[in-house]
Amino acid sequence: MAQPSIHIGILRNVPLFSVLDEAQLRSLSTVMLRKSAPKNRTIIKAGDPTDSLYIIIAGRIKVQMSDVEGKEVILSVLGPGDFFGEMGLLDGAPRAASVVTLEQSEFVSVSKEDFNAVLKNNFELAMVIMRGLVKRLREADRKIESLALLDVYGRVARVLLEFSEDIGGRKVIKGKLPRQDIAKMIGASREMVSRVMKGLEIEGYIEVQPDGAIVLRERLAATL
Q1: How far apart are CA 77 and CA 59, in angstroms?
Q2: In which band, very low, low, confident or very high, does the pLDDT at 4 lie, cut at 50, 70 and 90?
Q3: Which of 14, 79, 114, 172 could form a Cys-Cys staple with 31, CB 3.0–4.6 A?
Q4: Which residues partner with 51 through β-bridges?
Q5: CA distance 10 to 142
Q6: Cross-sheet strand order for the sheet of 206-208
Q7: Could you tell me whether strands 214-216 and 206-208 are parallel, antiparallel, or unpaired per DSSP bridges?
Q8: How far apart are CA 164 and CA 161, in angstroms?
Q9: What is the pLDDT averaged over residues 120-126?
Q10: For residue 131, what pLDDT is reported?
Q11: pTM
Q12: pLDDT score at 171
């Protein structure tokens, strides 16, 4: 559900807009929409016309593609502060991938026309967008490298490390990371991922806690 009013304080906390001055933020806040969506809601669909840029305020989403048989591949998982939909704003092409919420999420969005107007008058904002595209290209390179050079154990280990955060000197995955989603990220079956995860737990590389959090042992990184 969209709400036409965006508080300027929300935009100040968005890394993408950190290069904008007060006047630009106020101008942008008048043309942006705030939206919320429940878990498993499709926000944009591959092939749709590109009409807006989205910034995540809360929650997590997955960017995915499907083949003609319905087989899905997860390209990335994004969270608060990340943005998506910028590629089509730059080249005018339809949406290249679909975006689906992994949990209850909130976004702010700005139309293609309004965002391009701001972009034309702010070189630093254009550079932020470019750095974001380079980051995703590097992530795609790492994914290709993983598929080409690492076995399934290595691919699972890399995903776990990428999703972990430092908490009290330990690497921990707090949110639930479904085996099926891992499988879609690394090009393996869910059954294979489950076997690998069980093996990593038995061998002491990870510890799955009662609440579902996963603690990664230091020796896990040494496997890559």
Answers
A1: 11
A2: very low
A3: 114
A4: none
A5: 32
A6: 165-167, 170-173, 214-216, 206-208
A7: antiparallel
A8: 5
A9: 84
A10: 87
A11: 0.74
A12: 93
Print burial letters for 146-160: b (CB count within 10 Å at least 16), e (below 16): beeebebbebbbbbb
Residue pair 18/57 in contact (Cβ under 8 Å)? The answer is no
**Phi–psi pair at 96, nearest 5 degrees:** -85, -20
Cα 167 to chain centroid, rounded: 21
Top pLDDT among 124 and 205 is at 205
d(CA 143, CA 75): 9
Q: Is 47 left (phi over 0), alpha (psi -120 to 50) or beta?
A: left
Q: Token match 């008048």: residue?
A: 30
Check pLDDT > 70 for residue 24: yes
What pLDDT, on the 0 to 100 scale, is given for residue 200?
Answer: 94
> d(Cα 113, Cα 133) in Å, to the nearest integer?
20
Are 168 and 213 a contacting pair, CB within 8 Å? no
